[in-house]
Structure formats: structure tokens, C-alpha cells
Design a protein that fits this description.
By secondary structure, the protein is an alpha+beta fold. 15% of the residues lie in helices and 28% in strands. The strands form four sheets. Strands 1, 2, 3, 6, 11, 13 and 15 form a seven-stranded antiparallel β-sheet that branches. A four-stranded antiparallel β-sheet has the order 4-12-7-10, with no helix packed on it. The protein is globular and about 45 Å long.
Length: 240
């Protein structure tokens, strides 16, 4: 993980960092979900299959085995359960592919609120799974450590960007002055508080950057804007 792990950006103590999976930073350390070789093979297969034609694939955990298995990775699921309890469902997944030479940036946003949903931050957590190494050069996550303490902030809908539009509203006026990069190796993941402000930049390398975003929820976590029942995929626990 990046220098974020030192905690110097938000002034928390070693004791603070030891409390909870997400610590006071609002983000976990890296968690293995697949071997680097397995993740790399998946990335190569996906790059060959989609060939620069798609940037986002929605809910692949419902249609392809690798994503179905990935969201159920025992090590990752154990960390999710430590954060939100034993009863866990997947609310949504996005496979995001940042192709070389494209101006694909994701603006500052919070995963737990948008035009469709409002997530209870005590009963939900987001995850980012790296299929390729996520580096400064290829558009890794940047987070604002401790920003979850601000609660949910007003947001505006993003402008369309090819197939990249459709989930997060950009947080208006947030500068990210104290943001730090989160570099993640292929086959590893990080968990984030659903209120944590984060973004990612464009890919300036010659190879794709591929990752899977997941929103995990416990019972009662999801409030739908249109008051319809949430469409969830339970993966653990008896309460579903």
C-alpha cells in the first residue's frame, strides 16, 4: 500500500489504526483475493475479449464465473464480514477497464450515494479488486483519508464519458488537497468506507488497467431512491 498507511495525513495514532478493518483512515490494508498469476491471466483474457471496445461491464458477478468467485474469495469475504457482520450480499459490481491513450478519469465521489441508492455506512462497505497492478502511472485510486467523517456530501451527476458514465456523482467543489494514492498489486483488494472520497486518474501507460468494484451490504443497508426493493445477491449468512 502507499504511504497512506503511515497515517500522517490525518494525524491518527497507531492505536487508531488498529481499531477496525478500515481504521480511522476509512480504507483497509491490501487483502489477497487471487494469486497474482491468476489475476494476470484473467486480465489478459478480458483485454483480449473486450479489445478497447468497452470501459465498464456491469454486474459481471452475475454472469461470469471468475467474478462470481472473486466476490466470494474467503480472505476478502472474511474482511468484509469483520466490517459489516456475517450476513453479506453484493449490491452491485463494475468491471472497469482503463485503456491506454484514453482520457478516462473518475472524479471525486462517494460509493454509497448516487441517483439510485443511499447506503447505510454502518452496514455496507465497498471493495476494489485489482486484476492488473494499479500504479500511479496507470490510474490507481486516490483517496482522501478520514474524509468519511464528513458524512455524505452534496453531489452532481457526472457528464457522459463513453460507457464510463452511470454510477457515481462527482462531489462538487472538493479539491482533494490531502489525497494520497493507493497502489494495489494484481490479485489484491482494498476495502473502503462507502462515504470515503476517492477518485482515479487516466492511464498513461501502454497496457490496460483493470479492476473490479464491489458494493457489499448487510440486511437493511440499502435505501432505493424509487422505493423499490433492492436487487441483491446474498453470499453469506442466514438472514436473507
Amino acid at each position: 500500500m502507499s504511504d497512506m498507511a503511515r497515517g500522517e495525513y490525518v494525524g491518527e495514532s497507531i492505536a487508531d489504526r488498529a481499531v477496525g478493518v478500515l481504521r480511522s483512515l476509512g480504507v483497509s490494508g491490501t487483502i489477497p483475493w487471487a494469486t497474482p498469476d491468476a489475476a494476470g491471466s484473467l486480465a489478459a483474457e478480458l483485454a483480449a475479449r473486450h479489445g478497447h471496445h468497452r470501459e465498464i461491464v456491469r454486474n459481471p458477478h452475475r454472469s461470469v464465473e471468475w467474478a462470481r468467485a472473486g466476490v466470494r474469495s474467503p480472505t476478502l469475504l472474511s474482511a468484509v464480514q469483520a466490517a459489516i457482520g456475517p450476513d453479506v450480499a453484493v449490491e452491485n459490481t463494475f468491471l472497469i477497464m482503463k485503456w491506454p491513450g484514453r482520457d478516462f478519469e473518475v472524479p471525486w465521489h462517494q460509493d454509497g450515494i448516487d441517483h439510485r441508492i443511499h447506503l447505510d455506512p454502518d452496514r455496507s462497505v465497498s471493495a476494489w479488486l485489482a486484476l492488473t497492478d494499479a500504479t500511479l502511472a496507470n490510474g490507481c485510486l486516490h483517496v482522501a483519508p478520514g474524509s468519511q467523517r464528513l458524512g455524505y456530501l452534496p453531489y452532481e451527476l457526472e457528464e457522459a464519458h463513453g460507457q464510463a458514465r452511470g454510477r457515481a456523482g462527482r462531489v462538487a467543489g472538493f479539491s482533494g488537497e490531502y489525497s494520497v494514492p493507493v497502489t494495489v498489486s494484481a490479485g489484491h483488494a482494498v476495502l473502503m468506507d462507502v462515504r470515503l472520497l476517492h477518485r482515479s486518474g487516466p492511464n498513461s501507460t501502454q497496457a490496460p488497467r483493470i479492476g473490479l468494484n464491489v458494493r457489499y451490504v448487510a440486511p437493511g443497508a440499502v435505501q432505493m431512491r424509487d422505493h423499490t426493493p433492492p436487487d441483491l445477491d446474498p453470499i453469506s449468512g442466514p438472514s436473507w
